[in-house]
Amino acid sequence: MTNTTESSGPELADILASLRKDYKSLSARIRALQHSITCEYEGVSLRLHYPSFRGTESTIHDLTESVFLYLTPFALSRLEIAEVDSLYGKLTADEFRLKTVRLQQKAVRLFKLAQKATNRNGEAGELLLYLLTEWVLGAPQILAKMALKTNSQMAVHGPDGVHVRFDPATQQLHFLCGESKIYSDLGKGVAAAITSIEEALDEEKLKFELELVERNIALTALGEEAKAALIRYLDPFEEESNQRVTVTTCFIAFDFDAYAKVKGLKPSEVEAAFEKAAHQQLSELASRVANSLKKAGLENHSIEFFFFPLPSVAGFRDLFQDKIGWSVPADGGGQPSGTTGENG
Predict the structure, then answer these.
(1) pLDDT of 34-82, one tens digit each?
(2) CA distances, 321 to each of 48, 152, 318 (Å)
(3) Are strands 30-32 and 44-51 parallel, antiparallel or unpaired?
(4) What is the DSSP annotation of 154-168?
(5) pTM of the predicted structure, to 2 decimals
(6) 57/250 Cα distance (integer angstroms)
């Protein structure tokens, strides 16, 4: 065992920086509320994002179309995608296009299989959480778990992907696991999220997640030195493991009546009026979240909350399910619309 934190830290920082993608085009679809609202607990961050407006209408259809295009990097391993990317310029344009289309089709199929295997409704919450984690937090997904979850021989639960980021100021590796909840009622969504976070922080479950990453490190498509640098933060016999911080990312989508209220305004007034209502909602949420975290004993845990108000969670769910070709049984199947929670 050697103390190599100083050397492996900067090395890993450069490695993870190279994995980050450019998501600035998403800013046309997803707006961020600018605010100074904080939770009373130091490690808890509160963010609110929402679909952009066109006139007086929310661009939910455009959002659905856009996030669907990111299903491949969300659902498939970096290794599998890298193998296809390496063929660029070596195949004809038509041959390469067929390879990429097949990747997208496989991603959709895996997404649906994993949703059914974990008794969920084919919703987009975990996909949006993936995008916000990579884009806003600058934390690339290091391991996609969709393929693992569809393996009947492997009991894999918990987050659908594991993200990591390196903080050069503290020399800490942040190990991010997500929870995604889509509820029509915000209060129920917050309550379900807190319960899931509490369960996910069980020591045995966290140990399982770390071991899963280590066992499947080849799927990251990292070089040997990069993989070794990452594993040092997972190995309890290495000094770097003391600099690993577990962070929970939490996406909560909910019905928000401000969408209906702004429809009677002039288009030029809509966004300002909506953001005023959203700011008020987030301000009220701050104390509610703090109280819930304290009751659950989570006030000292690092949590990144992403609140995502929608005109209708049921409507958004239907749009996304239709986009991925989700088949719903004649009896409705799944769980009741508007009450569904999903772990992302």
Answers:
(1) 999 999 999 999 999 999 999 999 999 999 999 999 999 999 999 999 9
(2) 24, 24, 5
(3) antiparallel
(4) S---S-SEEEEEEET
(5) 0.91
(6) 26
